[in-house]
Amino acid sequence: MPTPLLLVTEAPVTADRFDSAVATWSRHLDRPAGARLYRSLESSALLELRPLDSLADLETLRPAWNKLWTDLAPELSADVHRQVVEFVEAPKNTDEALPTTPFVQLRRVEVRPPVLDEYRAWRDRTIFETVRAADESEVFLAYHSLLSTEPGVLFVAGFSVAPAVHNAVFKTPAYEAILTEVREKYIIAEGGEGGLHTTTYSLVEA
């Protein structure tokens, strides 16, 4: 069962300190709690995904955050970004709190509030139908921002094939038509590729 709340923590790392930053963060990672660490395939950044049962869990994490900051700050090129998102639905479900695949992809869009309900019905018969039909996509979870400076929808995709193979699912003429429609009708098209922000990460092994 996917985690009801997901804590997403990302930090940009100084390029020549990347391996050291991975080692530092790994020492602080609470793996028994289900936290997983990933490295961006597109930039010098690290990502932690952590399942939460409730917002009350955040208070218990503050001492660990302080310890991590003390050790990690010398290796960062900018500040840490954190957000909490809330589970909505899963066109490709998982028995675990998080995907257990070697790759995850975060796909973000901000939807105009007046058309959010219409968008959700639309995405079920377009985006989600594409995902459900694609063997390359093993897990696909839909979240929505709860506490975030990046408001909107967050899709968490998990897959094991090469990223280029997975991404090909979303580069067909049929899917390009879906992207055109979502930009015209539903999303706030600022930044990214017309409002769509996609980042791929690989799991840092224990």
Description:
- With 206 residues, this protein is of the alpha+beta class.
- The chain folds into 2 domains: 5-83, Alpha-Beta Plaits; 87-203, Alpha-Beta Plaits, CATH 3.30.70.100.
- Helix content is 30%, strand content 31%.
- The protein has 6 helices and 8 strands.
- The chain has helices spanning 18-28, 57-72, 116-125, 127-132, 163-167, 173-185; strands at 5-12, 36-40, 45-52, 81-92, 103-109, 139-147, 153-159, 197-203.
- It has an 8-stranded antiparallel beta barrel.
- A hairpin with a 4-residue loop joins strand 2 and strand 3 (45-52).
- The longest helix has 16 residues, at 57-72.
- It starts with a strand and ends with a strand.
Notable features of this structure?
206 residues, alpha+beta, Alpha-Beta Plaits, 2 domains, eight-stranded antiparallel barrel, 6 helices, globular
| Average pLDDT, all residues | 94
Total helices: the number is 6
Q: What is the element string, with H for helices and E for strands?
A: EHEEHEEHHEEHHE
What is the CATH architecture descriptor of the largest domain? Answer: 2-Layer Sandwich
Q: And the CATH topology of the largest domain?
A: Alpha-Beta Plaits
Going by helix content, strand content and strand pairing, the class is alpha+beta
| Tally of individual domains | 2
Radius of gyration: 17 Å
Please describe the biggest sheet, giving its number of strands, its sense, and whether it closes into a barrel. Answer: 8 strands, antiparallel, barrel
Return residue spans where pLDDT drops below 50 for at least 5 consecutive residues: none
The dominant shape is globular
Distance between the termini: 23 Å
| CATH level 1 name of the largest domain | Alpha Beta
Biggest sheet strand line-up? 1-3-2-8-5-7-6-4
> Which strand-content bin applies to the residues?
25-35%
